[in-house]
Every structure is written in structure tokens, then in C-alpha cells.
Amino acid sequence: xEQIETSREPEAGAQMSFLEHLDELRKRLVKAVVIIIxxxxxxxxxxxxxxxxxxxxxxxxxxxxxxxxxxxxGITGTETVISISELKDNDVGRFVINxxxxxxxxxxxxxxxxxxxxxxxxxxxxxxxxxxxxxTNNAIxxxxxxxxxxYINDIAKxxxxxxxxxxxxxxxxxxxLYVTVSLYAAIxxxxxxxxxxxxxxxxxxxxxxxxxYVTPFIGLSTVSFVVGAAFxxxxxxxxxxNFLLNVGEGDFQFQLRATDYLxxxxxxxLAMGLIxxxxxxxxxxxxxxxxxPGLLIRSWKISLIVxxxxxxxxxxxxxxxxxxxxxxxxxxxxxxxxxxxxxFSRKRRTDAEAGSA
Length: 357
Hints:
Layout: H1 2-6, H2 18-45, H3 47-66, E1 92-96, E2 101-103, E3 106-108, E4 113-120, E5 126-130, E6 134-135, E7 140-141, E8 151-152, E9 155-156, H4 173-189, H5 191-202, H6 214-246, H7 258-275, H8 278-288, H9 293-298, H10 300-314, H11 320-344, H12 351-356
Antiparallel strand pairs: 1-4, 2-3, 4-5, 6-7, 8-9
Helix pairs in contact: 2-4, 2-5, 3-4, 3-6, 3-7, 4-7, 5-6, 6-7, 6-8, 8-11, 10-11
């Protein structure tokens, strides 16, 4: 009888005491903080690029909301507006200053137009240069001065218009904005390692053969997070912002704070990234034997209510159309999770049972 008792497989999760679990949690949290700090340092170096990436959707929507759109037509009917990147050597035209600019001691107000030509300087660097003298109230700008048009690899870079930029209200807000951007980006960048820490904490509660699911769990979760964030950025966010900016079209002058916008878009992207974890989590729980397709099907009414509540919280507007934009992918993910549970679910087994199978 004693021999039988000593040869039994220990129950999952019985190997660590409560205090040992607390100590393990402390270690995992410390490692997670260190990972985020290291990722933050990397992301802070690219903070401006990350911010500009997040800024693209609102810049496009602000342009639509703030400007009058006039159909393009001309004398021949073949006239078109092309990108500034199409500028070539020796092209001549008038450059429009889109915000107050100083050239030496000369102040050029926004809206100033300057005769200019694409040319190269003495070092062979391409640029846009003045073709005649410019007189201001306190200075004379000579011919041949480089104008503020940035070139990258000999191609003119398109810049956002001044009136589509967001505002900051305090001197430190710009720096704080880049810190916040870097922190959010660091969490996203460090996600695989953070998931590894989560798995390391819960793995003592699993049987040995169940711990082999760590690789598919981390891989699926990372991919799901990226897909969810991209879905929010490219699919959900533009129509939501279009609705918000056009509610009072013609009645308001938008002065959108950069901090408010950043919190807005990052919360939506992070929320959808987490929501898209549903299939990955279902896969692991189904493989372990904790979730079955029958359970998910029986719980569909409760799940639908939870989905609608989450959609109402995450959606930036209270209208039913935008709320359904957020609820629809969650419903689809729930259906996908049912099929995943159907394909991969199995009865939970001990290590001994798994070894004899």
C-alpha cells in the first residue's frame, strides 16, 4: 500500500507553497520591469518616429474635417496634383511657407510664397533654393539660399501641414509625450518576453507535458497582439475619428491635444491587441483540457453580453455603428475560439497518463 502511495503522480500545482508562489511572483515582476526598462530605452531612441506613425491617422482625418475640398479641374482637363516627391533637378516654381520661418535674421510669415528652383549646392547636395532676392521688413535674403524642404536620398520628403498638427499646452508636455509613446511601444516590443514571465509563473501549476505548450502560446499570443493592434489602427480607428470630427462640422475649430489623442489611440490599439488574444488563450486551455467547445457554446449568451459591454467601453463613441465595429471582431474571434477548442480540446491528463497514451 505504501509503495502505491509513493509512486503516484503529484498533483499539478502542489510542488510550491503559498510563500514560494509569492516569492516567484516577486521575481517574475522584477524581471518584467527590467525587460520593460530595456525596451523603453530602445523605443525612446525612436520616439519621434513612433509618434509620427501614430499621428498619421489623425492627420488624415483632420485634413478632411478642417479643409474645403474643391474638385480638381483645369484648362485641358488633364491637370493633376502630384506629390512633392516628384520634384526633379531644375524644376522651377513658387515655394509656399506653411508656418512662420526664419532664414538668418529674416522672418518669413506663414503663407509667404518664394520663387524657387531645385538645384544642387557646392557639395552636390540636392535642395530647393531661392531664385531671386527676398526683401523683408528687417533683412534681405539673397538668391541661392536653401529653403526648408527636406530631402531623403535625393527625394523630397512630404511634410504634414502646420494646421493639421496637434497642440501641447505646457513646455514639458512634448517630452512627456515622447516618454509615454516610448513606454507604450516598449510594452508592445517586450510582449514575447513578458508572456514568457507570465508562463513561468503559472507553469508550476501545470503537468510537465503541459508545459511544452509555452512556444505555441507565446508565438500565437504575439502574432495575435500585432494583428489586433493593426486591426485597430487601420480598420477601426479611421471611421471612429471621422465620425467624431464630423459631428459638429463647420461649428467648431479643432485644437486637438497631442496627449489626449495619444492616450486615445494607444488604449484602442492595446485593447484590441489584448482582445485578439482570445484564440491563443483558448488553444492553450483546450490543449490542457480546461476549455471545451461545449462549454463555449453553452456560454454564448453570457459571452455576448460581456462582448457588448467591452465594445461599449472601448468604443470612442456611443453610437451603435461604432460600437458594432468593435463588437463584430470580438464575436468573430469567439466563433473562431469555438472551432479551435473543437479541434484541439482534450481531457486533462496527468504525466503518467500522457506517457502511457
